[in-house]
Amino acid sequence: MRGCGGSETKTARRNCREWKEEKKVGSEEQGDPTLEFEWKVTYGTIAPLGVPQQGILINGQFPGPKINCTSNNNIVVNVFNQLDEPFLLTWAGVQQRKNSWQDGTPGAMCPILPGKNYTYRFQVKDQIGTYFYFPTTALHRASGGMGMIQIHSRNLIPVPFDKPADEYPVLLGDWYNKGHKSLKNILDSGRSIGRPDGIQINGQSSKVGDANAKPLFTFEAGKTYRLRVCNVGLRLSVNFRIQGHTMTVVEVEGSHTVQNVYDSLDLHVGQCMSVLVTADQTPKDYYFVASSRFAQHPLSTVAVIRYANGNGAASPELPPPPPQNTMGIAWSISQFRSFRWNLTASAARPNPQGSYKYGKINITRTIKLVNTRSSSNGKLRFGINGVSHVDAETPLKLAEYYGVADKVFTYNLMKDEPQEGNKVEVAPNVVNGTYRNFIEIIFENHEKTIQTWHLDGYSFFAVAIEPGRWSPEKRKNYNLLDAVSRNTIQVYPNTWAAVMTTLDNAGMWNLRSEMRERAYLGQQFYLSVVSEARSLRDEYSLPETQELCGFVKSLPKPAPYT
Question: For residues 113 and 83, what is the distance between their CA atoms, to the nearest angstrom?
């Protein structure tokens, strides 16, 4: 049975779930279960803000099909590109252990050409949590092509909370009424795409009092639900809250957290978390509210949460947003610090999360990154430490694997410390990382706008966020006990953030701004982590079915790893 990711009727969806469960049971004796999907990527009309526009659909859906899987499942996704442009999907947060070939970034893979298909094959190895996929080509993310990835713990691994009555995906974020081609043309002309037009929740937006608003989901009184929430926007941090209800954070980007209770939560671009919500109020409608953070022109939207057998419309009085400006930054940093790793809980493996003593590992390298906004030849560019990345015709990973990296890019143009001045070099930005080294990355934001950063291939310990400039003495303020292991970190204006990770995953990994405008115009680089052993123990060989393009297309294939 194929195409389960895009089933449209309730009966078909139920049949699909039953098929997947049967497939899991039937596969376990032969190893880890495999889930197969067939996705057709097309254009179609959507209206997240009520204005009809061309969107990017997967199997006719926006948001796209949910991947609902379990730790160590093998995922097979056959993607048919029926757009008029090359297309790639990345699986943000899925670590692709030993397998950057499937990471879906232009530095790791050739794009899927119009009218062609490509089958992604990867394992969600030793991971649980909440993630999402999205397009990395052009500015496609501005028009859709995204969906939820939820990875459950295996049955034998205890979860530190009771099984909820149900789980609901919530993909929210800012939205532009201009299509991806128009936005890309603006950036290519050297200008900024400006501020978004609104905020959408699962492809819809609504106003208080809208009698035609469809419910986001339905609660039954007395039951507890898990909401998996991701900010899939292009630019703005968002705060979300639920009228009359508190939220208990239980998971952030693959880590079980200490279960604190919140009235509202900040979620920055590219970030995901899980919250538990108990339906303990009078049965009627309530508003789920999402509003922008740290934006000069505030935006907001609502969605209806409906109680089964409830009676009554949602109150027009919405829960207030948190403070803005300087007070808002302090409020948000305080909330970040309240997220703590649950040391006694197990995640994907039986051993407790706290058994990994990251705070006792010696740092072998410090990389300090400063983001900049500047111009090159009269056009807007964003950079890091004096380099503004541009994609090469030949994917960087392929050039490296074929031994012709010197014909495509230069290693280490970007230094470990920021350079003086505001001038940027526009070139492919690739930095060598030493396999299995334990490194520290400092993000320092001198700009007036908040930043969010993401690292493919790894999770890192988010050990600190503080105002001002970083210096080595600041290490005494790091959380070296229970910082959350995650894959994104926000950096507020005129602040710094520190993360730590072990480079134990060989491959070519993208470290990028999650603001798509900034990433598209250069605020990203690739971390090349090579195992000199060329061993299958450390990294998979180039897949036989991998598309080739650019400089390596006519070259003989290197000997595979052994």
Answer: 9
The partner residues of 513 in beta bridges, in order of sequence, read 453
Q: Residues near 287 by Cβ (< 8 Å), separated by ≥ 6?
A: 208, 242, 243, 302, 303, 304, 305, 314, 315, 318
Residue carrying the six token digits 């710094």: 496
Six token digits for residue 426: 């526009």
**Rounded alpha-carbon distances, angstroms, from residue 46 to 202, 205, 363:** 12, 12, 48
> What is the dihedral sign for C-alpha 174, 255, 499, 388?
negative
Instruction: Give the pair of three-digit tokens for residue 162.
Output: 């009771």
Angle at 27 between CA 25 and CA 33, to 5 degrees: 95
Instruction: With CA atoms as reference, report the closest residue to 121 among 66, 68, 76, 69.
Output: 76
Burial of 27 (0-12, 13-18, 19+ CB in 10 A): middle
452: three-class secondary structure by DSSP: strand
State the amino acid at position 120 in one-letter form: Y
d(CA 422, CA 7): 51
CB atoms within 10 A of CB 323: 12
**Number of Cβ atoms within 10 Å of the Cβ of 45:** 10
Residue 1's pLDDT is what?
32
Spans in the chain with pLDDT lower than 50? 1-30
Joined tokens for residue 359 = 């705070």
Residues 134, 118: Cα–Cα separation, whole Å = 16
CA nearest to 461, candidates 358, 545, 354: 358
Instruction: Please tell me the distance from the alpha carbon of residue 149 to that of residue 254, in angstroms, as a whole number.
Output: 11
- The answer to whether 234 and 141 have CB atoms below 8 angstroms apart is yes
Q: What's the confidence (pLDDT) of residue 20? A: 40
| Residue that has been written with the tokens 């898990």 in this structure | 226
Largest Cα–Cα distance of the chain, in whole Å? 69
The upper half-sphere exposure of residue 17, i.e. CA atoms within 13 Å in the direction of its Cβ, equals 8
Taking the CB of residue 466, how many other CB atoms lie within 10 A of it? Answer: 16
**Rounded-to-integer distance, Cα 299 and Cα 302, Å:** 11
Nearest to 74 by CA among 104, 15, 119: 119
Asked whether 204 and 303 are in contact (CB, 8 A), the reply is yes
Token pair belonging to 334: 């305080």
Residue 178 CA neighbour count, 13 Å, CB half: 14
Query: In this structure, what token pair is assigned to residue 554?
Result: 């006519």
329, 339, 364: which is closest to 496 by C-alpha? 329
